[in-house]
Amino acid sequence: MAAPAPRRGCPCPAVRPALPVLRWLPRYSPAWLQLDLMAGLSVGLTVVPQALAYAELAGLPPQYGLYSSFMGCFVYCILGTAKDVTLGPTAIMSLLVSSYAFHEPVYAILLAFLSGCIQLAMGLLHLGFLLDFISCPVIKGFTSAASITISFNQVKNILGLQGIPRQFFLQVYETLRRIGETRAGDAVLGLACLAALAGLQAMKSRLPRAARAEPLAARVSYLIVWTCTTARNALVVLFAGLVAYSFQVMGSQPFLLTGSIPQGLPAFQLPRFSMAAPNGTIPFGSMVEDMGAGLAVVPLMGLLETVAIAKAFASQNDYKIDPSQELLALGFANVLGSFVSSYPITGSFGRTAVNAQSGVCTPAGGLVTGALVLLSLAYLTSLFYYIPKAALAAVIISAVVPMFDAGIFRTLWRVKRLDLVPLCVTFLLCFWEVQYGIVAGVLVSGILLLYTIARPPVQVLEGDVLLVQPGSSLHFPAIERLRDIICSRALAASPPRSVILDCCHISSIDYTVVVGLAELLQELRKHGLSLAFCSLQDPVLQVLLSADLEGFQHFPSREEAGEALGHPRLLWKMSPVSELCQPRSAGWGLQGPGSW
Description:
β5 and β6 (466-470) form a beta hairpin. This protein is α/β, with parallel strands linked by helices and 596 residues long. A 6-stranded mixed beta sheet has the order 9-8-7-6-5-10. It has a two-stranded antiparallel ribbon with strand order 1-4. The protein starts with 20 loop residues before the first helix and ends in an 8-residue tail after the last strand. It is 57% helix and 6% strand. α2 (30-57) packs across α12 (232-249), α6 packs across α14 (294-316) and α6 (105-124) runs antiparallel to α15 (323-338). It has helices spanning 21-24, 30-57, 63-67, 71-79, 91-100, 105-124, 136-153, 155-159, 168-177, 184-205, 216-230, 232-249, 284-291, 294-316, 323-338, 349-357, 365-380, 389-400, 407-415, 420-429, 434-454, 479-492, 511-526, 538-547, 558-564, 570-573; strands at 87-88, 275-277, 280-282, 346-347, 458-462, 466-470, 499-502, 531-534, 554-555, 578-581, 583-584, 587-588. It folds into 3 domains: 38-257 and 282-402, no CATH class; 406-453, no CATH class; 457-586, STAS domain (Transcription Regulator spoIIAA).
């Protein structure tokens, strides 16, 4: 739906950039209301069962999933710049909370508060560029490993097993060892819910859109099927709850149930900065120390998920987002969410997709979603008692299985095999500890990046003089290697040859490079050779002129440099031989003249 042109003038122009709601609210159309209501209801029917399931994944009582599901909707409506994005608990964030909150609500709420403060600071300081250092292979490795660990974490609920440890390898061992203790009721119900969710998902992906010209009955049928497939999580959980309630009425219960959930809204209060323990009180400093790397991993992964989702749907639906504003929105959502007992939240890809497919027009759809969660907390929590854990496990598994991208391994093998290294390092270590996998993947990616900076490609052309052309900018790790290439090739020739350094690809240099070039000039001069620079870009030329290098000479082109070195027809006498000096195994190798 095309949005009308914005009205001229704004009663508060200074506030408008900080409050994106002022950009769309003054021109809100009544025609958008129906679509926003439908989208908000669809997302609400999805988030309620998911929230209960994600709280279980985070190792927290189920009500904390609902506490985490409404504040983000309200805050994002005011501060968000993407009409499709919905904030709330997600599978990946719940997995991280499980690792860093130690299954203690006080830790989880404090983690939300501190993560929000960090995200706000990053947004105010425009530090979103730090996310650029987390490469796609690292993200894919993490999400694929998370898909497996989260799915297997729910197998115990599908099988009705209790007392299974949460560490992945111990979990696999104990589940396989105790598989004979499987409860038949939970297994049958869990597998049936999985099959139903898979069937409804397949039905939705193949559902043809009803045209306006079709009969009313066809359009109504389409709406009914679309609603059922979109709200499939709610329908499956509702069906499973009715089955469990029926058994309860008959005096037997073959399923493990969610159990009692406190009714009512959470108190609006500051998060607790200390926690009572059997042997005393755990102070704030000790709690922060316990969270450790979580205070970096949780905020960064939250930002990464939200910004990536916002960019993806903005591109798909032809609008723009403001990444810095997205950081502020997420930060405020987490800080204010901690006041209502929320654990850390982020953008949800699945619910954002539901929002977009429902035709949402503005972030106002989040108000409906948040209101539905509040109504559920106020009036429906007594009904959640009968929801089987196997049904919630099926909801989680169906949500995270698509996160496993098996094709990325094949794609990287075909496109760039070196990127498989950070992918595999992240993927494998995430099974041990999530933070180790992410940190190791980022470090490996950084090492590969630094290696390309330290060993840029260098093209060498031989003729009456040696023409050397670096393929990228020069930074301090690369200068020693460049000196070795130039000296070894210039002095090994018979007779030794002067050098032209073509700097057309060099856009920046640092002081260490300047020092290295001065030493190179001096070394060549000792052997009666000259070094001429050509095609210098202005920033590089200014740096070299400021350094006042002895014997420094520069020319606009190769031809003029050749004339200055006494070879006026340099380019025509040059040998057609060229070499791209690239790394070989552990280091860089130079071929000798006889190897061409």
